[in-house]
Give the backbone structure.
Amino acid sequence: MIKFIEKPQSAALAFMVAGAVWFVVGALYGMVSAIHLVSPEFFSNIPWLVFGRERPIHVNTMLYGFVGTMLIGCGLYYMPALLRTRLWSEPLAWTGFFLWNLTVASGPLCFSFGYTQGREYSEYVWLADVSLMLSVVCIICNLVMTIVNRAEQQLYVSVWYFMAAFLWTAGNYPLGNVMWHPATGAMPGLIDSLFLWFWGHNLPGLLITPLATGAAYFVIPRATRTPLNSHTLSLVGFWMLVALYTHIGGHHVLQSPIPNWLKTVSVVDSVAMVIPVSIVVLNLWMTARGAGARVWGDPAARLVMGGIVWYIVTCIQGPLQSLPFLQRVTHFNNWTVGHAHIAMLGFGGYIALGAMWHIIPIVSGREIYSQKLVSLQFGLLTFGLTGFFLVLTAAGLIQGSAWHNGETVYRVLPELAPFMASRAALGIFILTGSLVGIFNLFMTLRHGRELEVRQLQRAEEAA
Ligand code: HEM
Ligand code: HEM
C-alpha cells in the first residue's frame, strides 16, 4: 500500500478514476430528480429520495465530484510534466485525494438524511467544509513545492490556471460558506445571499473555469502537435479573468434588493467577460488552425474542442442573461438550468473527459481499451446535452414570459410536462455516456494493451 501511494502519478490516476465514478453517481441522482419532475409520486414514501434531498446530491456530486475531481487529476499529471519535475509528494496528493472525496461522499451520505446547510452550492455541512479546505491546503503545498523544485523556468499558462484555482478556492470557499458560523454556515438576512452567491459564482468561475481552461491549454497544442498560438495572449486572458470574473457574483441576485452599485458592477463586468473568453477561444482555435482533421480524428481532443464550443455558447448566453431587462424573463426558471448544464457538462465536463482520455494512457501505461467507445461517449453526451439545452431553454422562456404577463406558477405547470418528460428521456443518453465512460476506463486499466517503454517515452515527450 505504502509503495502504491508513493508511485509517481498514482494520485492523479486516482482522482481521474474517482471523477468517472462520481459522474455515474451524479447522473443517477440527476435521472431520479428528472423523473420526479415528471411524476412527483414516483418514489413516494422514500424520505431519502425526495426531490429536495436528491437535487443537491446531484448538483454537488457533479460539480465537486465529477468535473472538479477529474480536472484535479488531470492537473496533478500536467503540472509536473510542464514543470519537468516530479510531483513534490505523492502521499500528500493522496491525503488531498481522501479529504476531497470524503467531502464529495458526504453529499449523498448527509443530504439524504437532511443534514445540509441548505444554501445552493454551499450545502456541505461544516465538517465536510473543513475536509475540503484541508484537501485544498494539501494540494496548494504540494504544488508550491513542485513549482519551487522545477527544472523548467517558464511557467506555461496551464500552471497559472491550476495553481490559481486552489489559491482562489482557499480564500473564497470559507467566505462564501460562512465557515466561521459552523452551526448554520450562513449570515442572517439578505446579506447572506451576497455571501452565498459570492461562492455560488466563484465555484464555476474561479474553480471550474480555471481548471478546465488550464486543461484545454494543455491538451490542444499537444493533440495538434502545434505550439500555442500566443503565450502573451494566454496570460492576458488569465489576468483579465482575474480582473473581471472575481466580483460579478451579484449577477445571480439582480432581482433582489442588493446595492445598486453592486448590480451595475456585476452587469458591466459580466458583459466585459466576452473579452477574456474570446481570447481563450481564439488562442486555442488559432493553435488548432489547419489541424482540424487531427482534432476530429482524436476522440480525446474532439471532446476538449467540443468543450470549447460549449464555452462559446455558455459565454454568449451568460452576458446576455446578466442584462436586467432580459433576466426579468429568464430568472428563477429552466432557462438558468439549461445554462448550468451547458456550462458544467458542456464546458467543464467535456474538457475534463477529453483531458482524462488524453492523459490516461500516459499515467496508466496502457492504451485506451476502445477509442470507438470514447467517440460513442462523445456522441451520447452531445445528443443528450444539445437536447437538454433546447428543451430547458424553451421551457424557461414559456415560464418566464407567462409569469411576466401575470400568470400564476401553478397554471404554467401543465405546459411544462412535455419538456420535463423530454429532459428525463434525454438524461438517459447522458447517463449511458457516463456508464460507457466508466466501462472503457476500467477495461483500459485492466485489459488495455500495455504500452512499450519507447511508446510511453514518446507519449510523455509529446505531453
Ligand atoms: C443524467 C443526466 C442529467 C439529468 C437527468 C439531470 C437532471 C437535473 C435536474 C432534474 C436538475 C434540477 C433542475 C430543477 O431544479 O429544476 C438538475 C440540476 C442541475 N444539474 Fe443536472 N442532470 C444531468 C446531468 C448533469 C451533469 C452531467 C451536470 C454537470 C456536470 C449537471 C449539473 C447540474 C447543475 C449545476 C444543476 C443546478 C442547476 C441550477 O440550479 O440552475 N447535471 N439536473
Ligand atoms: C461570460 C461568462 C458568464 C456569464 C456572464 C454568466 C452569467 C450568469 C448569470 C447572470 C447567471 C444567473 C442567471 C439567473 O439566475 O437568472 C448564471 C448562472 C449560472 N452560471 Fe453562468 N455565466 C457565465 C459563464 C459560466 C461558466 C463558464 C460556467 C461554468 C463553468 C457557468 C455556470 C453557471 C451556473 C452553474 C449557473 C446556475 C446558478 C444557479 O443555480 O442559479 N457560467 N450565469
Notes: Residues 409-447 form the longest helix (39 residues). The chain has 17 helices and no strands. The radius of gyration is 21 Å.
